[in-house]
Amino acid sequence: MKKIERMLKSVCYLFVISVFMIYCSSVDLTDTSSGSEVTNGIMGKVVSAGANKAGVQVFLIRSDSWEKDVISNQISIDSIETGSDGKFRFTDIQTGEYTVLSISDDSSFIEQDITVDLKSMVDLDILELTPSASVSGKVRGDSFTPTAVRIKNTHLNSPIAEDGSFRFISVPSDEVQLYAEFSSEEKNLITYARGLFLHPGSNIENVELKVISDGIMLDDFNDGIIRSNLDWLTGSSYWYAYTEGEGSVIEPENLENALSEENAYEGRSLSVRFILSDSTEIPYASVGCRLGNQDREYVDFSDLKAISFMMRGTGTVRMNLITALVDKNEQSTRRGDFGVVLEAQDWWQLYTIGVEELMPEPDSRIEEEGKTWQDAKDSVRAIVFGSWAEPGSEIELGLDNIFLIGIDQSHFAD
């Protein structure tokens, strides 16, 4: 009888334990949604030239929230100073994506992205401060009030003084993009980016960021189609490819395949390769955007002030505006038009070309006739990016965020 009682008690205990385990498996006892019972952390050691770096401020930034807070400069959720041994430790933080950022007083820099899982102490081990650079300048935005300048793909931002000046005392020694942030409800407000390549220890001053309110976006390529952003106004504004010289090709052959997120400046960019024929004396390849429509081929650009765009690549590129003045010439002399020659860099860089810089190509018919931009500005049909290079050359070209400054929607209305 006692044996039976012991067996029944054992069964009861097992039943109670089983029910408890089932309950535990269905309830999250470590729920951090309310911010309680968080035991996660991040630790590491900051060094410089192999030596422990004491007294360096280390910032912890929530990666999914920094952008909305960057303007108010409230990007850091916690900060701590390294000890005499260079070590630091953040505790009691929630799970998620973070960035550890440190800027020392000798202009050295660290930024590292990490993921913190539930109940884990992430050891970053040794973080080496790397030589950095400094940048300063002014933001100009007509009557608009600038709020901050930030650097693309980092958590760095600079407040702006009343006179528009800003300063970064320590930024990565590499290719950087500076952005001016403005408070405005103007739909046509253009916020400029400025591309710089910073060498370790360099100090770049007098950088000017401009914001111009009277402009229109020709294309940012983010829709993934070859029709430009103006197509809704004209009904026939689109990108096309053109080559001269048997054997010259443009890759990819289908331009829609050239609208890619790979190595893009922002979202999608247009990226092509010109492979120029080695069997033609003066081979040529280009991509262009038609501006007019079926009823009116030419657009009046008399109010155009400048053309702004992001470009990267290799080799020499000429940006041209094709006009009725050149179209009137016979086919064999339709070359050059009004434009400017640019050397593409291997990083995204902002180019702003004023109309005063637009010149006919040397030795072209329009140059021989002494024509200037003023003679052709009222009849523009396309903007073209092309290259006359050595036979057999390969030219890489990337384009993004093309603005027509001084032009608005009314210029494209019927």
What does this structure look like?
This protein is mainly beta and 414 residues long. It has five helices and 29 strands. Strands 3, 4, 6, 7, 9, 12, 14 and 16 form an eight-stranded mixed sheet that branches. Strands 17, 19, 20, 21, 23, 26 and 29 form a seven-stranded antiparallel sheet that branches. The protein has helices at residues 2-26, 66-69, 231-234, 324-327, 365-368; strands at residues 40-48, 51-52, 57-62, 78-81, 87-93, 96-103, 108-116, 121-128, 130-140, 145-151, 157-159, 165-172, 175-183, 190-191, 193-197, 203-212, 215-219, 239-244, 249-251, 259-260, 269-275, 284-290, 306-314, 316-323, 338-343, 349-354, 359-360, 380-387, 394-405. Helix content is 10%, strand content 46%.
How is the topology of this model organized?
Blueprint: H1 2-26, E1 40-48, E2 51-52, E3 57-62, H2 66-69, E4 78-81, E5 87-93, E6 96-103, E7 108-116, E8 121-128, E9 130-140, E10 145-151, E11 157-159, E12 165-172, E13 175-183, E14 190-191, E15 193-197, E16 203-212, E17 215-219, H3 231-234, E18 239-244, E19 249-251, E20 259-260, E21 269-275, E22 284-290, E23 306-314, E24 316-323, H4 324-327, E25 338-343, E26 349-354, E27 359-360, H5 365-368, E28 380-387, E29 394-405
Parallel strand pairs: 1-8, 9-16
Antiparallel strand pairs: 1-2, 1-5, 3-4, 3-6, 6-7, 7-9, 9-12, 10-11, 10-13, 13-15, 14-16, 17-29, 18-22, 19-21, 20-21, 21-29, 22-28, 23-26, 23-29, 24-25, 24-28, 25-27
